[in-house]
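Example record

One chain of 230 residues, shown exactly as stored in the release files.
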Amino acid sequence: MSAIEDLCRTIARLRAPDGCPWDREQTHQTLTRCLIDECSELLDTIDRMDLPHMREELGDVLIQVVFHAQLATERSEFNFEDVAREVNDKLIRRHPHVFGANKVDTSAQVMEVWEKVKAGEKAAAGKSESTLFKQLPPRLPALMFAEEVAKRIEKKALPTEGVFDTAQVKSLGARLDEATLGRMLFEITAAARVKGLDPESALRKESDRVMREVETKVNATGGAPVGNRP
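Predicted structure tokens for this chain:
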């Protein structure tokens, strides 16, 4: 028996009628905080490149995956094998340059292939993006969410005139390094605390404003962005 099979059996045992009272009480909803906490602890080990603890924290994240799969198994919805099979099939399908005849040479070309395959999957499933920013994970931390909004704007070459100062963005980008960026972010955060402002909320609201105004501009031109970039 493999280690992953052992883990699945252990989680099932914890959820059994004579298992652990705490584990038996859990639902998909109650486990969401656990998943966030475990991912945060894993990210900390990655930041520090603490490999022994990284292995441990990867295991804690894996527990969350197996636990959710066990909950679904109990309701005859899906099981861990289904989860693993689906993601494996998706990886193969989205890498035709590795598992098929298509060949690419750069990471940029890889991302272009990935997006084309992904779009084809959605079309085949009858899904379409109703907005330019659909499917940005809403629970991302505000800083990561803002980064994803900016990435989507750049990738699709969306109009930003009057929405934010692109010249200032380019000017700042030319002068930034990691240390300078860290210092600026910390100073802004500290200043917000002194002022009694919530930087997380402020940035999320600003990202929402940018999305709304960019979408308004695109809709005003008939729904067509300025252009697409790979």
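Notes: The two ends are 45 Å apart (CA to CA).
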